[in-house]
Amino acid sequence: MTRDYSATLFLPKTEFPMRAGLPRKEPELLARWRRLELYRRLREAATGRAKFILHDGPPYANGNVHIGTALNKILKDVVSRSQQMLGFDANYVPGWDCHGLPIEWKIEEEYRAKGKNKDAVPIVEFRRECRAFAEHWIDVQREEFKRLGVEGDWAHPYSTMSFPAEAQIARELMKFVANATLYRGSKPVMWSVVEKTALAEAEVEYEDYVSDQVWVKFPVKDFPVEDFEPSKQKPVMRPMLPGKLSVVIWTTTPWTLPGNRAISFNPKISYGVYLVKDAPAENWAKVGDYFLLADSLAPEVMKQARVLAYERKSDIAADDLSALECDHPLRETIPGYGFRVPLLAGDHVSDDAGTGFVHTAPGHGREDFEIWSANEAQLKARGINTAIPFTVDVAGRFTSDAPGFVGKRVLTEAGDKGDANDAVIAALDHAGMLIARGKLKHQYPHSWRSKKPVIFRNTPQWFIAMDLDFAGRCDTLRHRALAATEARRWVPG
């Protein structure tokens, strides 16, 4: 006899249907919450309770919600609702981020589709269109979030573009002005010539790109005898100075050389002085040239320079490298490059590729900027001008801070290669400062919107000083921030 085992299962009785029927049920639930005025009743029930505040990083108002936006908002809704049920007043106020490039880019796309030039549109009109675009998507996303069942103060959201919010931002900024912590400075950023704006790391993707690569001589000056012990000036270097000995650098961005202000080396790397003994007559590297190179990279550099025979003449210590100064390779041929080029120690220098020396243009790279800034006091004490030049403008053109190349373009407005690289390489050739050149295919940063390469350029920016001591009380913004961090419980730790 077959037994009916379903009779042995002790399952709860429920009136829930077997199927959820969401397409029909969801609108019914939302309509019921509206009829009940659920949000108002939640607020009334929580009157007088301790507050739980969720500081919500808002979504961007430039399109329909996607799976990432939805997941973010649903998780926050779970947090707020659970805290409300645990006895807190958890009032969730939704908001939107309305400023920045993504919205501007959408309006520019509409302009391009209509054959309209953005630069010909008055700025007030352009901003008005951006504001209207954001307002439209706030309304769309608000209804989409409601459909996801998210509960909050949908009638009174906040937005970064509301005039009261903008006024509050100005008031907060003026506090920094009042206590003298706000100052004007500069810093290199990743810059899109196509979009004429700085880009964050999250807005950059890396694609294959073919770059010009050059190996360039920086002629070494004599040791500054008055500042260093004679014992450190090795006799083997004396006959070579000045004029014959050069530090060799390798770069895939020749256009940054007008912005060069230093050369970086790594004290942990072994360096030597190398003499060119045999080379073809038409060669850039000539017999009798002396090069400073990392020992592990010297053979590859000589191969690239088509040197047939060379000899390692001596070691050179880190202290001696720090004592050296070079001439800019364009010093003798283009007015405006008569400044001294110091050698600075930096851990970012490796002997994986190149020459063991890194051409350092503080206006064209984060590490270049950091090592220049870290040595600013010492450089000033040596009488070296530490001002960082603005060699490239918003449109990718060389400025007057790049003598001899004004108007040459690193990239065109369409994002294609300009004539700057060729002009700089030709100038180096004319000056006799090239020892090799070539092409290199490698990964290079591109804007994820325009899909075009970006450049690193120094731009004027506003900064807030974290270490300005208020009234000599060891009271700085950094101290306050760290103290506040220590006083908080972090989950997870």
The CA-CA distance between the termini, in Å, is: 62 Å
Structural class: alpha+beta
Number of strands: 15
Rg (C-alpha, Å): 32 Å
Which spans of ≥5 residues are poorly predicted at pLDDT below 50? 223-243
Summarize the main sheet.
6 strands, mixed
Give helix and strand order, one letter per element, not per position. Answer: HHHEHHEHEEEEEEEHEHEEEHHHEEH
Short description:
This protein has 493 residues and is of the alpha+beta class. The protein is built from twelve helices and 15 strands.
Q: What are the salient characteristics of this protein?
A:
single chain; 493 residues; alpha+beta; 6-stranded mixed beta sheet; 4-stranded mixed beta sheet; 15 strands; 21% strand
List the helices and strands and how they pair.
Layout: H1 22-36, H2 38-45, H3 67-85, E1 95-96, H4 101-113, H5 123-147, E2 158-159, H6 163-178, E3 182-192, E4 197-199, E5 204-219, E6 245-251, E7 262-265, E8 271-278, E9 290-294, H7 298-304, E10 309-316, H8 318-323, E11 325-327, E12 340-345, E13 358-360, H9 366-374, H10 376-381, H11 420-431, E14 434-447, E15 455-464, H12 477-486
Parallel strand pairs: 1-2, 6-9, 7-12
Antiparallel strand pairs: 3-4, 3-15, 5-6, 5-14, 7-13, 8-9, 8-10, 11-12
